[in-house]
From TrEMBL:
The gene is glf. GO terms for molecular function: flavin adenine dinucleotide binding; UDP-galactopyranose mutase activity. It comes from the Bacteria. This is UDP-galactopyranose mutase Glf. Its EC number is 5.4.99.9. It is an enzyme of class 5 (isomerase). Residues 149-348 form the UDP-galactopyranose mutase C-terminal domain. Its cofactor is FAD. InterPro entries: UDP-GALP_mutase, UDP-GalPyranose_mutase_C. Gene3D superfamilies: NAD(P)-binding Rossmann-like Domain. GO terms for cellular component: cytosol.
Length: 371
């Protein structure tokens, strides 16, 4: 073969398709029994389309990325909305990201946009310089909103306090003074009409691509090829030479509710301060599927020491970034091994960012077939 690609998620599948269309012979392996990586979806026992590894909501401002993926799927327009329940005993749910509705409903106010801006300016705690996620949140919305919506969620999700997490994590969530309750504001917001797995099947359906699932990298490490694209954990590739990079894992509790047409009013409801789970997602909102029952998933964060834990999120803070830099130096010294994706680059990528990075890497490889 020309290229061995380790991982059949977005990074691996997009790269494989581009290389195959350039005339290469590509072998794609994945240690899981399925393709599509964490975006893998399937019909559950009751016939509801679910996302096995938690909700994947596609959004992008990149026309190139959207058009490229559109070769392999039709789309269902979908704008994701999230509510947060800061106090489960009280039960009230508020739009997230925080907007005018959130503030007026939470505090019994009737502010216009200018009034919300003035309110936030009054309650915010200016931080300079901004280094941590705590700095980001307090600088934006102040202490009360921080405690209600962010600190507890962060502690559950990451196993760290806001003050221990890099600022870029909290910076992903905006604050709005209007009533826009969409979680994302990207130009393109849609879900694959037949699901992610079907899109990946089409992406990998090329005579130049061979796919083998349920195959560990160690089983094919000695296979003759010109180059390797590795999308798994970079520390795993190097045998954790400098120690294990910290990742955060998740446990998913899937449940089907027969006879319940709708469990919650929006796709996802966050529980920042109560329960073991961070959020509940109801999949029929995402897919638009008609079904007499409904299926939901609860996401319970856990450490990598939990039984069967898989790495999902790099944990961004200065110490972890410094450790990653040591692995990155090894990776950059490689001539025919290329590292791509959230785990391989220890980076908090969105799906569209992975696609863009894969397209860029594939172009580099086509332009420079070998060292």
């Amino acid at each position: 073969m020309d290229t061995l690609i380790v991982g059949a998620g977005f990074a691996g599948a997009v790269t494989a398709r581009e290389l195959a269309e350039a005339g290469e012979r590509v072998l794609v392996i994945d240690k899981r029994a399925n393709i599509a990586g964490n975006a893998y979806d399937r019909l559950d026992a009751s016939g509801v389309l679910i996302h096995e590894y938690g909700p994947h909501i596609f959004h992008t401002n990149s026309e190139r990325v959207f058009e490229w993926l559109s070769r392999f799927t039709e789309w269902r327009p979908y704008e994701h909305r999230v509510l947060a329940v800061p106090n489960a005993a009280d039960g009230r749910a508020f739009p997230l990201p925080i907007n005018r509705t959130t503030i007026n409903s939470l505090y019994g106010l009737d502010l216009d946009e200018a009034g919300v801006a003035a309110y936030l300016e009054r309650v915010r705690e200016p931080r300079e310089p901004i280094r941590t996620s705590e700095d980001v949140v307090l600088n934006s919305v102040g202490r009360d909103l921080c405690e209600r919506f962010f600190r507890g969620y962060t502690r559950k999700q990451w196993g760290l306090d806001l003050s221990e997490l890099a600022g870029g994590v909290a910076a992903r969530i905006p604050t709005r003074t209007n009533d826009d309750d969409r979680y994302f504001t990207d130009r393109f917001q849609a879900m694959p009409a037949e699901g992610y797995t079907r899109m990946f099947e089409r992406m990998l359906d090329h005579p130049g691509i061979e796919v083998r699932t349920g195959v560990e990298y160690a089983r094919v490490a000695d296979t003759d090829r010109r180059r390797t694209v590795f999308t798994g954990p970079v520390d795993e590739y190097y045998g954790q030479r400098f120690g294990a990079l910290p990742y955060r894992s998740l446990r998913f509790e899937h449940e089907h509710l027969p006879g319940t047409a709708q469990f919650q009013p929006v796709g996802t409801v966050n529980y920042p301060n109560d329960h073991a789970w961070t959020r509940i997602t109801e999949f029929k909102h995402l897919s638009g599927q008609q079904h007499a029952g409904t299926s939901v998933v609860r996401e319970i964060p856990q450490g990598m020491d939990a039984p069967g834990a898989e790495p999902y999120y790099p944990i961004p803070n200065p110490a972890n970034e410094a450790l990653y830099k040591r692995y990155e130096a090894l990776a950059e010294a490689e001539t025919e091994v290329f590292f791509l994706g959230r785990l391989a680059q220890y980076r908090y990528y969105n799906m569209d960012q992975v696609v863009a990075a894969a397209l860029a890497l594939a172009q580099r490889l086509v332009d420079r077939p070998s060292a």
